[in-house]
Amino acid sequence: MRREVGVPVASAGKLPVILRGEGVERLHFRPSGLTPMVEAALGGVGSGHRPSQPRISTTDSYATVSSATIVPFERFLLGHWQQMTLIGLPVPLVGLRESILEQPALPALTNERYAQTHAAYEAASDQRPGLQKWLATELPPLLADRDPVRVVGVGVGDGSVDAPLAAALAAGGRRVRYTGVEPHAPSAAGFAERLNSLGLQSLVPTVVIGDFADHDVGHPADLVHFVHSLYYVEKLSAALDHAFSLLRSGGLLVAAVAPLEPLCVLTELLCPWSGRTPWFAEDVHAEFDRRGVSVRTETIVGRLDVRDALVDPLGRGEAVLDFLIGARSRALEPVAHDRLLGYLRDISLPGHPGVLPHPVDVIIARKP
Questions:
Q1: Which 3 state secondary structure label does DSSP give 324?
Q2: Which entry of 26, 39, 204, 214 is 20 to 30 Å from 166 by CA?
Q3: Does residue 240 surpass a pLDDT of 50?
Q4: Structural domain tally of the chain?
């Protein structure tokens, strides 16, 4: 069962609030000034409750609360219902959901189309440069005592995130053994070329073309990372278990994964998952919480520019739309296609139509 509510804010529009089962997992609301009220309601800064219960992230235009611990819906409403209106999803998404129920599942992207659209999507977002910089700056100090340092990257693609990290780890001539696991052969070749082109004698890159579940690193790893790759694993718990099994005691498991916020709400709705469950940051937090593993989380807030998609959705904006929903967007019926574009307008940053919040959570756990 899924229930959605929204918080009204003058002319800023409404963002969806996702409630799973009988508890609150994630709230989307505007403006960020509502944060203190939500903190007090869910437990957090100044509330007297355990501060680890909710996680609250805020940008200039919106704020998000997520709770790995199930929080009763009534607890949030109690004393604060005056500020809320039960509205369901934004109107365009309600209509879109109704539209797609009336047609077959959308055709999934081929591996080739996925690679093409992914490149266009990354070019339309400023998230990746921020993620590259953060990983290359923050992770090396956490592994300062390791030489050689052994890294396993899962779903490394063409290595665009891995190369800056590998270079930072190899600073000062430190030995780095960097293994990239990637199922798509052309992307794996790009990873190998990119890391070899760094020209660092102390860096030894290896690429494995295949599934992570079948991979055995041979030596205990110091770092296993998933950068935007956990969405695609069949069983999240099994993937994390396997990652922990590859780590030495004290090694780092890092997951960069999107929270279930407006963009991913759309992806979850439209992507042809073929019976698989899509995993988001909330699910990863729940898995770590279930294991009793403490984590550190940093939210990198990017922006995705979909203005081309809004003005030319069947032309220069089509690739971004396709990657966003994980399917061929032109297969949508005209009414559904219009509602898709309407939803993107609805979740745009205030004053910036077609520019969308594009956050990623970086979750860091250390193996006991």
A1: helix
A2: 214
A3: yes
A4: 2
Contact in structure between 166 and 151 (CB atoms under 8 Å)? yes
pTM of the model: 0.75
Give domain status of residue 93, yes or no: no
Give the pLDDT of residue 102.
Answer: 65
Q: How far apart are CA 270 and CA 330, in angstroms?
A: 13
Q: Do 113 and 36 form a contact (C-beta atoms < 8 A)?
A: no
Query: What confidence score (pLDDT) does residue 230 get?
Result: 94
Between 253-257, 319-323, 335-339, the lowest mean confidence (pLDDT) is in 335-339
Are the beta carbons of 193 and 121 closer than 8 angstroms? no
Cis peptide before 148 (omega within 30 of 0): yes
Same domain, 155 and 68: no
Residue 119 CA to its chain's centroid (Å):
17
SS3 label, residue 302:
strand
Based on the number of CB atoms within 10 Å of its own CB, is 81 exposed (0-12), middle (13-18) or buried (19 or more)?
A: exposed
Print the domain residue range for 13. Answer: 2-88
Mean pLDDT calculated for residue range 238-255: 96
DSSP notation for 6-48: B---TTT----EEEETTEEEEEEES-GGGHHHHHHHHS-TTTS
As a whole number of Å, the end-to-end CA separation of the chain is 36
Tokens linked to 80: 């604060």
Q: Is residue 185, in this structure, part of any structural domain at all? A: yes
Max intra-chain CA distance, the chain: 63
- Mean pLDDT over residues 65-88, rounded? 37
List phi, psi (to 5°) of 228: 55, 40
Question: Residue 25's closest CA among 61, 70, 91?
Answer: 70
Question: What does the alpha-carbon distance between residue 317 and residue 337 come to, in Å, rounded to a whole number?
Answer: 13
